[in-house]
Design goal:
This protein has 80 residues and is α+β, with helices and mostly antiparallel strands. It has one domain. The protein has a 4-stranded antiparallel beta sheet, covered by helices on one side. It is elongated, with a radius of gyration of 16 Å. The N and C termini lie far apart (61 Å).
């Protein structure tokens, strides 16, 4: 099987070219996945959104995480 780890991001409302990593060993792909998650948590690139996943090319994603760094605007309650 062929494994991959991938990071997709959105910055300033626009999609950024994904970072793709391919491996022949499961442990290497899972390690890269966790490194990408650690990097996404710090958000040093100032992304709006980061989607990280790893899996196999043959069977798809094994695990996926989504990090959202934008806060919705508070909605004012209508006065009664």
């Amino acid at each position: 099987m062929y494994y991959y780890a991938q990071k997709k991001t959105v910055k300033s409302g626009a999609a950024v070219t994904p970072a793709n990593y391919s491996y022949t060993e499961r442990a290497d792909a899972e390690k890269q996945y966790h490194l990408l998650c650690a990097n996404a948590i710090t958000n040093s690139d100032g992304n709006d959104l980061a989607a990280i996943e790893w899996g196999t090319i043959e069977q798809g994603a094994i695990e996926r995480k989504l990090y959202s760094f934008t806060q919705p605007e508070p909605v004012a309650e209508p006065e009664a």
